[in-house]
Amino acid sequence: MSTRKTDYHPASTCFRCGKYLRPGGLKYRVDITITSAFNGVIDEHYEEGEMEKLAEEIKRMDPEELEKEVYQELIITLCKDCREGLIDYLSEAEELH
Ligand SMILES: [Zn+2]
Q: pLDDT per residue over 3-31, tens digit each?
């Protein structure tokens, strides 16, 4: 289960493995902010009319959905094992660069 930053309460179960997290026990809060990395450059190779199509699509989208496309905040609660797993995963990914 994920929540928005504004109404975060530590979850009673781990986001990843679902393990019960007892009150007062070890648990970890992970804040995730995902923002669109639009670099201000519009692909020049858009076919004629494609930009219009894109604009139409955006107009049809739910504003809330659209906001999520650009900016999304999540807070998850993890148990100790899953926290370590996440850190391992992220540091492995780092090494690939
Ligand atoms: Zn877990």
A: 555 567 778 999 999 999 998 889 999 99
66 and 58 in contact (C-beta within 8 Å)? yes
Distance from Cα 13 to the centre of ligand 1, integer Å: 8
Q: 30 and 78 in contact (C-beta within 8 Å)?
A: yes
Domain range for 58 is 5-95
* Number of independent structural domains in the chain: 1
Token pair of 10 as six digits:
């530590």
Q: Quote the ligand 1 centre to 78 CA distance (angstroms).
A: 5
Tokens of 9: 């309460």
